[in-house]
Write a structure and sequence with these properties.
Elements (H helix, E strand, L loop, with lengths): L21 E3 L6 E3 L4 E3 L3 H4 L15 E4 L2 E4 L13 H10 L6 E10 L3 H6 L7 H4 L8 E11 L2 E8 L19 E7 L3 E5 L3 E11 L2 E10 L6 H36 L12 H18 L2
């Protein structure tokens, strides 16, 4: 996603996907086809005499489509990594129908806190009835949740109020969404949450120790086909972003960051409903240690 001339970013990450015939760099108007080939360079013979345009296509990256999402290896020429549990995760995504969903809206948040503190909130449900008491708490049972690992990744299931109706039953995964909220924490910094009628995909991008960019996508079953449907989903999206994620989850991560900055040596307690938090930080430590030994 960078022009081969001076490195200008070509497509903004928050831009909604849309059909196009090509990509034009906004800086000097170098243009590229959807296959990445360089189509045109203004004043090429004058400014770049002898340059072979065929050699100036966009740099390719390895990618795959699995579980309804596009996965990219960010290093040019790097091999596709050995399976770290992602194929198991994507099998769940297929069973939950993620690939059939429609991208409804995207929002970018700037958080004055460390990225790991944002991830922490999605490893435990202990906070749901308390932090979210004025928003989504009424939909959930208190402290009824299970979690497991899928390789390097984490899978959580949090019970909703209707779970009592499923006792003794083993319905397909997709049919359980009315009674269970499934969330997947993809290591290191992606969260995918399956609610009954929509999906949230959040990617976390550390900017500094105390600054994280969070890109939040909402997917729904199908594109709204009436003004009333559009308004309904827009209200839902605004409530989730402004009322739940930004005002509660992300704001709390920033408050935790401030608290820890004031007392950096403070020993923290991890309860039985928060084991995923400890497991996540241990995984981060192992990953950093492996990089340092390379």
């Amino acid at each position: 996603n960078a022009c081969r001339h001076r490195g200008t970013r070509l497509v903004d990450e928050a831009t909604a996907p849309q059909p196009c015939k090509g990509i034009v760099c906004p800086y000097h108007a170098w243009s590229y086809g959807t296959d990445g080939a360089c189509r045109a360079i203004p004043l090429q013979n004058t400014v770049f005499p002898g340059l072979d345009r065929a050699e100036m296509g966009l740099r390719p990256l390895g990618c795959r489509v699995m579980g309804g999402l596009v996965w990219v290896v960010p290093q040019r020429g790097a091999p596709w990594p050995a399976d770290d549990g992602l194929e198991s995760v994507c099998a769940d995504f297929d069973a939950l129908g993620l690939g059939d969903d429609h991208p409804f809206a995207t929002h970018v948040s700037q958080v004055a806190g460390n990225w790991k503190l944002i991830m922490d909130a999605f490893f435990e449900s202990y906070h749901v009835k308390r932090l979210h008491k004025d928003t989504i708490a009424p939909f959930f049972l208190d402290g009824v949740a299970v979690a497991d690992r899928q390789g390097a990744h984490f899978r959580n299931a949090v019970a909703r109020q209707g779970l009592v109706d499923l006792k003794g039953a083993r319905p397909p995964l997709a049919r359980m969404r009315d009674n269970v909220t499934f969330s997947y924490n993809l290591f290191p910094g992606v969260v995918v949450i399956f609610s009954p009628d929509y999906v949230n995909v959040m990617t976390l991008w550390p900017v500094a120790v105390d600054h994280t960019t969070v890109i939040h996508h909402m997917l729904i079953d199908a594109a709204p086909d009436t003004p009333e449907a559009q308004a309904h989903w827009q209200r839902s999206f605004d409530m989730l972003i402004g009322g739940v994620f930004e005002a509660e989850d992300l704001a709390t991560a920033a408050r935790v960051h401030k608290g820890l900055a004031d007392r950096p040596e403070e020993e923290l307690l991890i309860g039985t409903l928060e084991n995923g938090v400890a497991a996540f930080h241990e995984a981060v430590d192992r990953a950093l240690a492996a990089i340092q030994h390379v």
